[in-house]
């Protein structure tokens, strides 16, 4: 068991609070992975001072030079991948092949940042007046607060850290209390790669205390948040009071549509991975399956057989398909929604109870659960459960399937299985989601493409790829007049 400390201004420091919290393994709650400081506002202020002090010098370093640190970080991460994946599985429970994927996404994001340092493009645009040029550049803003959830303990911090600091900002990250160790190790990688002190600082502690203090702190210029929609709305509200920039990546209620002409075996593989990967605890998890009437009964039968074959257990075991929920609270939420589903009149096809065989009794396991004959208005078809629960809904035809797909307040990801090219294109056009998959499950984002959602899934920003860099920078428009005379836009007319 390791004792972690906050990392501020390039040094490990104790919290002023003197309080701590434990990080435990959800597959075996007896195992304590680390003890972490439960920080307070005083700790946060120290970190903000460090980040403020580091900012002018860091900002001035040429981008390709900053990018070299990102490349070295990627190299270190490559060498640590297996060790980091094992820590991540112990810390939050998802199976080892998925934590390797999570860490790989961090590596890919670091490498993207390394390349971005030499291709930090602006636009060059002609002027309506002669002897005048116009271009745009992007500049950093200052000290950022990065607030992250527990379900992607390295990928999500990476999506924020690399574009934020490559752009010349400095930052404080506050990871979720369920997965503080993975984020802490990632910060150390950046320092090992040569990051100057104070550019990135990590503070451990609760959202209500440290998170809240960040939102209203006048020296923090922006908040990049990933988490639930409820907390996201709170963050948007507080940031709005001082016009602090904030990017919000929030919840989902993602649907997979299967049309009658689809390759059903492919659609089945897709929904199993989409619904039960990461034990359903992905923002892009498939939590609704919308099946066209002619194949409804057949597909349900196929689904039941496969779901019941999924192997539950400790994610370090390579043969396990589904790990535990992250904590007791999350498993209680799943149990609560299963009760709600039954009371609403949905039919339980399989699952619907905790899984406590053998060693699994020590953790927060729950059987992969499928409800059929779910109506689109039921709470289990509307609210984010964030667990291994799939709601199956019947649709009369393509048009009704799209209507059901769009009939929630969320808009992160959607998927449609069909071999009809026209319907596939139409679905991409009509889906009210930031991400659309054709003949692939609702999960599987690649780090070099925009990631984010519509409606209550966010506030219009996109992480990933080039768009992440838009969040962390301000666009500046520069006009250079080399005519030597006063030229008035819109008023002077050009003459030959
Ligand atoms: P959460 O909203 O409970 O917490 C997220 C983070 O916010 C944590 O670090 C928490 O400590 C902090 N926080 C809590 N209250 C706060 C406050 N008042 N002020 C500031 N910070 C506060 O979410 P979670 O349970 O950790 O994660 C699951 C949620 O995240 C799901 O809703 C999921 O859909 C969403 N998510 C979204 C994406 C995306 O990119 N759209 C990705 C992953 C997860
Ligand atoms: Mn944990």
Please describe what this structure looks like.
- By secondary structure, the chain is α/β, with parallel strands linked by helices.
- The protein has 14 helices and 20 strands.
- It has helices at residues 41-60, 63-92, 96-116, 155-166, 180-192, 207-215, 229-241, 264-276, 296-307, 328-344, 379-382, 398-405, 421-430, 467-471; strands at residues 2-3, 6-8, 11-13, 20-25, 28-37, 124-126, 132-140, 143-147, 170-174, 200-202, 222-226, 245-249, 254-258, 286-292, 347-350, 369-372, 389-395, 413-417, 435-438, 473-481.
- A seven-stranded mixed sheet has the order 15-16-17-14-13-18-19, sandwiched between helices.
- Helix 8 links the parallel strand 13 (254-258) and strand 14 (286-292).
- Helix 2 (63-92) runs antiparallel to helix 5 and helix 3 packs parallel to helix 4 (155-166).
- The longest helix is centred in the first third of the chain and has 30 residues, at 63-92.
- It starts with a strand and ends in a 15-residue tail after the last strand.
- The model has no long low-confidence stretch (mean pLDDT 98).
Could you provide a short overview of the structure?
Helices cover 38% and strands 21% of the residues.
List the helices and strands and how they pair.
Elements: E1 2-3, E2 6-8, E3 11-13, E4 20-25, E5 28-37, H1 41-60, H2 63-92, H3 96-116, E6 124-126, E7 132-140, E8 143-147, H4 155-166, E9 170-174, H5 180-192, E10 200-202, H6 207-215, E11 222-226, H7 229-241, E12 245-249, E13 254-258, H8 264-276, E14 286-292, H9 296-307, H10 328-344, E15 347-350, E16 369-372, H11 379-382, E17 389-395, H12 398-405, E18 413-417, H13 421-430, E19 435-438, H14 467-471, E20 473-481
Parallel strand pairs: 1-5, 8-9, 8-11, 9-10, 11-12, 13-14, 13-18, 14-17, 16-17, 18-19
Antiparallel strand pairs: 2-3, 4-5, 6-7, 7-20, 15-16
Helix pairs in contact: 2-3, 2-5, 3-4
């Amino acid at each position: 068991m390791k004792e972690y400390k906050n990392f501020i201004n390039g040094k490990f420091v104790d919290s002023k609070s003197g309080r701590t919290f434990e990080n435990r393994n959800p597959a075996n709650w007896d195992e304590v992975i680390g003890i972490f400081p439960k920080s307070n506002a005083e700790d946060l202020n120290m970190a903000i001072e460090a980040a403020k002090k580091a900012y002018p010098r860091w900002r001035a370093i040429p981008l390709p030079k900053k990018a070299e640190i990102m490349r070295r970080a990627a190299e270190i991460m490559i060498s640590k991948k297996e060790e980091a994946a094992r820590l991540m599985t112990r810390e939050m429970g998802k199976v080892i092949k998925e934590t390797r994927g999570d860490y790989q996404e961090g590596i890919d994001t670091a490498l993207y940042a390394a390349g971005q340092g030499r291709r930090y493009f602006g636009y060059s645009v002609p002027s309506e007046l002669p002897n005048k040029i116009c271009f745009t550049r992007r500049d950093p803003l200052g000290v950022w607060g990065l607030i992250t959830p527990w379900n992607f303990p390295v990928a999500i911090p990476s999506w924020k850290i690399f574009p934020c600091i490559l752009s010349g900002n400095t930052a404080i990250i506050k990871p979720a209390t369920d997965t503080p160790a993975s984020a802490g190790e990632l910060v150390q990688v950046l320092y090992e790669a040569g990051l100057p002190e104070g550019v990135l600082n990590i503070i451990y502690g609760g959202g209500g205390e440290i998170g809240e203090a960040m939102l209203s702190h006048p020296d923090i210029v922006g908040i990049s948040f990933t988490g639930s929609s409820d907390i996201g709305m709170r963050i948007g509200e507080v940031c709005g009071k001082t016009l602090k920039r904030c990017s919000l990546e929030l919840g989902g209620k993602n649907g997979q549509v299967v049309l009658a002409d689809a390759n059903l075996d492919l659609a089945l593989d897709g929904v199993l991975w989409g619904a039960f990967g990461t034990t359903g605890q992905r923002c892009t998890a498939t939590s609704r399956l919308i099946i066209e009437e002619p194949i409804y009964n057949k597909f349900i039968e196929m689904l039941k057989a496969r779901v019941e074959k999924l192997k539950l257990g400790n994610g370090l075991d390579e043969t396990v398909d589904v790990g535990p929920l992250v904590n007791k609270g999350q498993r209680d939420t799943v149990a609560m929604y299963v009760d709600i589903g039954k009371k609403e009149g949905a039919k339980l096809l399989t699952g619907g109870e905790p899984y406590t065989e053998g060693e699994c009794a020590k953790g927060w396991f729950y059987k992969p659960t499928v409800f059929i004959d779910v109506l689109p208005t039921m709470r289990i078809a509307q609210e984010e459960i964030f667990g291994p629960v799939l709601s199956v809904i019947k649709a009369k035809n393509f048009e009704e399937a799209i209507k059901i797909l769009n009939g929630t307040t969320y808009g992160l990801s959607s998927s449609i299985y069909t071999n009809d090219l026209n319907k596939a294109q139409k679905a991409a056009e009509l889906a009210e989601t930031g991400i659309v998959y054709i003949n692939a499950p609702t999960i599987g984002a690649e780090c070099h493409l925009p990631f984010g959602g519509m409606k209550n899934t966010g506030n219009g920003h996109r992480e990933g790829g080039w768009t992440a860099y838009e969040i962390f920078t301000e666009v500046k428009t520069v006009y250079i007049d080399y005519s030597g005379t006063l030229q008035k836009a819109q008023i002077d007319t050009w003459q030959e």
